[in-house]
Amino acid sequence: MKHFYNIVKKEVAELVTKQLIISLVFMVLFFVSMGKITKSVEEGSKEIRISILNLDVNPYLQNILSIANKQGIQIDFVESKDVKSAIKEAREQKSNILLVLPDGFSTKVGKMEKVEIEIYSIMNGLSMQEAISSKVIESIIETLNNSITTSFIQKEMPDKKPEDILNPIHTKNFVILKEKTIPGDAGVLSALVMSQSMMIPLVIMMVIMYTGMLVMTSMGTEKENKTLETLLTLPVKREYIIAGKMVGSAVVGFLMTVIYMVGFKYYMSPFTSSPEMSTSLKDLGLFITPFGYVLLGISLFLAIIAALSMCIILGVFAQDTKSAMTMTYPIMLVVFIPFFLSMFKDIETLPLSLRILVYAIPFTHPMIASKSLIFHDYRMVLFGIAYMIVFVVIAMWIAVRLFNTDKVLTAKFSVKWKK
Amino acid sequence: MEQAIEVNNLVKSYGKIEAVKGISFNVQTGEIFGLIGPNGAGKTTSLRIISTLLQVTSGSVKVFGCDVSKKAPEIRKMISYLPEEAGAYKNLSGKAYLEFIAGFYSDNTMIKKGMEIAQLGERIKDKVSTYSKGMTRKLLVARALMMSPKLAILDEPTSGLDVVNSKGIREIIKDFVKSGTTILLSSHNMLEIEFLCDRIALINNGMIVETGTPQELKAKHNVNNIEEVFLKAIV
Ligand SMILES: Nc1ncnc2c1ncn2[C@@H]1O[C@H](COP(=O)(O)OP(=O)(O)OP(=O)(O)O)[C@@H](O)[C@H]1O
Ligand SMILES: [Mg+2]
Known about the structure:
Chain A is of the alpha/beta class. Chain A has helices at residues 2-15, 18-46, 61-70, 83-92, 105-110, 128-156, 162-166, 186-224, 227-233, 238-268, 275-283, 290-316, 321-344, 352-360, 364-374, 379-404, 407-410, and strands at residues 49-54, 74-77, 97-101, 118-121, 174-177, 180-183. Chain B has one domain: Rossmann fold (3-Layer(aba) Sandwich), CATH 3.40.50.
C-alpha cells in the first residue's frame, strides 16, 4: 500500500506541471471574464430608464404609468415641451428611451380609440446591450396596452373579469412520452431534458478525455526518459505501477474537470434555467433519484477506469510523448461518438447494428444514463454497468499481462507499412 | 564462493533479430565484472535480461540462485539497474526523485547516502529538468547505488561524465564492492575497465569471444592494454 501511494504521489507530481497550471488558470480566467461580460449585458438591460415627454394635459395617464413603474422601469418626465430639447434632457437623465405622448392621449385611450405615440431609442453604439433595450420597448408597450384595456374593461363591464376577455382560451398541457402521459409543456420538458442530457455527457466527456490524455502522457514520458526501465526493476508489483498511474491520472483529471466546470458554470450562470422550471419538472416526476445518482456515479467511475485501462494498453505501444499523443486520437474519437449521438439523437432509434456498435463503446453508458435515469428507467443503466465491469476486467487483465512481459519495453507502434 | 550471476547459453531475439546468440558466463559474489564489446554487440540486451526487464528466448539466467523467468520479484529486491542514457522524472527535484525511489525500500538512511554520492550540492533541490546530462547521470548513479544492493547492474555508468566526475564515480564503485556489493557493468572506456574490473567478458555480435582477468587477456594476446585486446579479439 505504501508503494502504491508512493507511485500515485509521483504521478501527480509529474503531471501537475507549470504548463498545465498555466493553461488551467488561463481557461478559468477566460470563462470568468466571459461570464462577467454576459452578466453585464444582462444587467445593463435591466437598468432601463425611460423619459417621457408629456404633451397631454389630462392626468389620467398617471394610473397607467404607475403600472409600468411597478415592473421596475425607471420613469422620468422631462420639462421640455418640444421633442428636440426633450431628447437633450433625456440624454442628461441617462435614459435609453424617450416616449412622446401626444396631446389628447388620455382622452383617446379612455374611449379606446387608436392612438400613436413616438418612441425614440437613444443608442450610444450598436452593441448587444443596446439591442436588448428594443425588446424592452415592446414589453413596455405591451404592458401599457394591457393596463389600458384592463382599466377600460373594469369600467365598462364591471361584472366580467378582464383576464377572461383578454384571453378567453386557457390551455392545459399534457405530454405523452412513450407510454407515459404527464401534465406539462413539451417545450419546458425538452428544454430540461436537453440541459440535463447535455451537461452530464459534457462533463463525462471532459473527465474521460483528460484522464486518458494524462495517463498516455505519463506512459509516453516514462518511455521517452527511459524512467520506465528503472521503475520496472524496482521491488514493486506491476499491478501497483499500473494502478498508481491510473489513480494519479484520475485524480489530476478530476481536478482539472472540476476547475473547468466551476469556470464554465460561472460562464453559463446567466443562461441557466429558472428554478421554477426544475420544480415543475420535479412535480412531473422527471428527476434523478438519489439511487439514480449513485448509479450514474458508478457508471462514470467504470467508464473512467475503462478509458484509463485502454490508454495504458495503448501506452505500452507508445515510444515517446509524441506517439503517445497520437495514440489518444482513437480514444477521443470513441468518446466523441457517443457524446454527439447522446446530444442529437436517441440511440434507441438507431438501426440495430449501429446500436450494438455504440453500446459496445463503454463511454456510451454513463452518457445515456442521465437520460434514462430522469425517466427512472434503470434497465439500460444496470446493463451498462455490468458490461463495463466485464470490459474493465478484461482490459486490466491485458494491461497487467503486457506489463509482466517485456512487451512493455520492446513493443512498438509503427504507422509505416512493411514493403 | 556463491555465484552472483550464472548465465547459460542465453539467447535473445527481438522478432527476427537475434541480439544475443547463446552466451555463458558467471559472476562471483563481491567481484566487479565488465562486459565490453562494440556497439550493437548485445551488452545492453544481456544486462536487461539479468535485470528482469526482458524475457529470455532460450537458455537460463540465475541471479543469486533465482531464475529470472521464475523469481523476478525476488531478484528485484536484491538488484539495482542503471539503464544507459536514462533520465529521471523531470518535474521532481533530485532529492524528491531519490525519496521516491527510497519509498520502495524500508531503509530511510539511503536518501542521505544518495545525496552524498550524487554530489550535486544545493542543486539537488532543483528540478531534474534543469540538470545537465552529467548531473542527471550522477543522480542516477547515486540512485542505483544508494540502496547498497547485493548486485548492481550498471550500463555504461560513466557515459557523459567529465574526467573528474568519472573518476569520482569509479572510486565510489570500487568502495561499494568492499561493503559486499557485486557489480556487473558495461563500458566503452577501456581505462575504466582496466581500473575497475576483476574479470571481463568480451562480447561481439551476440557471442562471447573472451573471458578472464585483464592480466590474463593481455598476456594471452601479448599486448599492453585492454584496448588492443579488444581490437585483436574482435577482428
Ligand atoms: N527493442 C529492440 N528491438 C529490436 N532490436 C533491438 C532492440 N533493442 C536492441 N536491438 C538490437 O539488438 C542488438 C544488440 O543491441 P544492444 O542494445 O544490446 O547492444 P549494445 O551492446 O548495448 O550496444 P551499444 O554499445 O551501442 O550500447 C542490436 O543489433 C540492436 O539493433
Ligand atoms: Mg548498450
